[in-house]
Write a structure and sequence with these properties.
With 581 residues, the protein is α/β, with parallel strands linked by helices. It folds into two domains: 327 residues, ABC transporter type 1, transmembrane domain (ABC transporter transmembrane region fold); 240 residues, P-loop containing nucleotide triphosphate hydrolases (Rossmann fold), CATH 3.40.50. It is built from 21 helices and ten strands. It has a six-stranded mixed sheet, with helices on both faces. Helix 18 links the parallel strand 7 and strand 8. Helix 6 packs antiparallel against helix 12 and helix 9 packs antiparallel against helix 11. The longest helix is centred in the middle third of the chain and has 53 residues.
């Protein structure tokens, strides 16, 4: 790794820690203070060992007795230092943990807030599972380095004070002990540089695995219907294998690193004992001073390993932090709804020369579309597959941004019902209200209009029946009727429907459409339609082909004047009657 890359890595590591500490600086400061007390007491305990050995233990062997006051002083010295040192440990560990999880809470909230603020068009370009990973496993990875930082910070202070203390006791022994410190730190740095890429790779694979699992759960019915369980298992196993392989490579490096951290201090301790014995024989140091140095050096091994642990967590934290920051640093895209204007008194919806292009596509999906829908008017959007119908209603509903042109809606509530009716795992009531408050009478009236009141009354707990994740306990038609009732209970001024009755049988569809016609007398309705019975409900039809509205008029007029429209409707009729090809 080049010097520039190492400098950049160190700079990013410092930036990571500083950025997270800024979120809760006071808690972190308390943790560092506790760790500093621990560091000072660790050095003080070495002094206490020297004092007790030279003034209590050795005199007891040499003279046969020691003054009671001296023994009590030594005991009190050790107890006080030990208690204060233990208090420092408690404060450091408690507040380091509190800081870590408060930072996790803050980061998770920030990521979720940013995801919520991004418009639907932004989410359509990203995998849901990967976004969930950014607010979950990536945040957890990012904060993993934070808890040991207070102790690692105080360890630097401990090393400085300890080095000065050991050199002051005996230059030769002190130098022999101190020279090991930079060696151990150097091993830590080398390890961190080598393991970095493995943790980055593992974190990326983990995000891909999360996205794959989410996608698999979403499509569980499709997977089972086509007997693709084995294929899907193999696909996820392959991604999981990539995560495992990257982690195994990192663990192998860590095993070598841990072994070196065990061997080098142990060999150094043996060398210090041998050298210290020679220094005692020549009278250069006392037994207490040798004991002090050996004791202090032994105590320093764990803090040095903690620095190694901190550095070993840094690559994983940087990988998680980088993925979190890509979400937090990405600008919030403009909400398409914010650019929707207001129509005049006579119109409920107006689209003027609207063009739209999906990101990365070479041509427009919609081009130069102009539609005016009067207040209380129902307009059906009809066209072959791929003509741009769904894109048009999503642009009209303010979900997708226009590239050129302008969209205007009348003032009041806007409701949308999609072809795939999404239900949450809560109760029928919760799915109809979605955070709002509506009376039972209003809910039952909306269900009646959507021809859903009969089946809801038959549910075990009526409005309070839990429908299961995505409404798994209901049929497709029942889910569509609940979705339509959810829109109608809000008494919308503009109602946008995307082939909403496609899962209903003909008799239920006729009932729903009749209720909609009577109830929507003051509502502007723009709906995608593929059934002749639905099209017949409309006051006007906008016929689409190739991303443009090529004809606009009544159903009867278009049948007479537009051959392509007539052929499409005849194909619809043949398909409904089961006589199609």
């Amino acid at each position: 790794m080049t010097t520039d890359r190492r400098f950049d890595r160190a700079r990013r590591g410092v930036g990571l820690v500083v950025s997270m500490v800024r979120l809760h600086p006071r808690l972190f400061a308390v943790a560092v203070a506790g760790a500093t007390v621990f560091a000072v007491c660790t050095v003080a305990s070495s002094f206490a060992v020297q004092w007790v050995v030279d003034r209590v233990i050795l005199p007891r062997f040499d003279e046969g007795e020691v003054a009671v006051g001296t023994v009590l002083t030594g005991a009190l010295l050790i107890i006080v230092i030990g208690v204060v040192r233990a208090a420092g440990v408690v404060v450091r560990r408690s507040f380091a943990g509190i800081t870590q999880w408060r930072v996790a809470e803050t980061l998770t909230r920030d990521v979720v807030d940013r995801l919520v603020r991004q418009p639907a068009s932004w989410h359509q370009r990203r995998a849901d599972g990967d976004l969930v990973a950014r607010a979950g496993v990536d945040v957890e990875a990012a904060i993993s380095v934070l808890a040991p930082i207070p102790f690692a910070t105080s360890t630097v202070v401990l090393l400085v004070i300890s080095s000065l203390w050991m050199l002051n006791v005996d230059v030769v022994l002190g130098a022999a002990a101190v020279v090991v410190f930079p060696v151990l730190l150097g091993i830590n740095v080398v390890y961190q540089h080598r393991v970095d890429r493995h943790f980055v790779e593992a974190q990326d694979h983990l995000g891909a695995f999360s996205a794959g699992v989410h996608e698999s759960f979403e499509g569980v019915q499709l997977i089972k219907a086509y007997g693709a369980e084995e294929r899907e298992t193999e696909r996820l196993a392959s991604i999981a294998g990539d995560v495992r392989d990257a982690r195994v490579r990192a663990v192998r490096l860590r095993a070598t690193f841990e072994a070196m951290l065990e061997v080098i201090p142990s060999l150094t301790n043996v060398g210090l004992v041998v050298l210290g014995a020679q220094r005692i024989r020549t009278g250069d140091i006392t037994v207490g001073e040798l004991s002090s140095i050996i004791f202090l050096f032994t105590l320093l091994v764990f803090p040095l390993r903690l620095i190694g642990y901190t550095l070993s967590e840094l690559p994983r934290s940087l990988a998680g932090w980088q993925r979190v920051r890509t979400v937090l640093d990405e600008p919030v895209e403009a909400d398409p709804m914010a650019s929707v204007g207001r129509t005049g008194a006579a119109l409920g919806l107006e689209m003027a020369s609207v063009s739209f292009r999906h990101p990365g596509e070479p041509v427009d999906t919609l081009h130069d579309v102009s539609i005016n829908v009067g207040r209380g008017e129902i307009v059906a959007v009809v066209g072959a597959t791929g003509s741009g119908k769904t894109t048009l209603v999503e642009v009209a509903g303010g979900l997708l941004p226009v590239r050129t042109g302008e969209v205007r809606l009348t003032s009041g509530t806007r409701s949308m019902v999609f072809q795939e009716a999404f239900l949450f795992s809560g109760t029928v009531r919760e799915n109809l209200c979605i955070g709002e408050t509506h009376s039972d009478d209003a809910l039952w009236e909306a269900l009646r209009l959507a021809s859903g009141d009969d089946f809801v009354r038959m549910l075990p707990h009526g409005l309070d029946t839990v429908v299961g994740e995505r409404g798994v306990s209901l049929s497709g038609g029942q889910r569509q009727r609940l979705a339509l009732a959810r829109a109608l209970v809000r008494r919308p001024a503009v109602l946008v429907l995307d082939d909403t009755t496609s899962a209903l049988d003909p008799s239920t569809e006729a009932s729903v459409l009749g209720n909609l016609r009577s109830a929507a007398s003051g509502t502007t309705v723009l709906m995608v339609a593929s059934r002749p019975s639905t099209i017949a409900l409309a006051d006007r039809v906008a016929f689409m082909a190739g991303g443009a509205v090529v004809a606009d008029g009544s159903h009867r007029d278009l049948l007479a004047s537009e051959p392509r429209y007539r052929e499409l409707v005849e194909a619809f009729e043949a398909d409904r009657e089961g006589t199609g090809p």
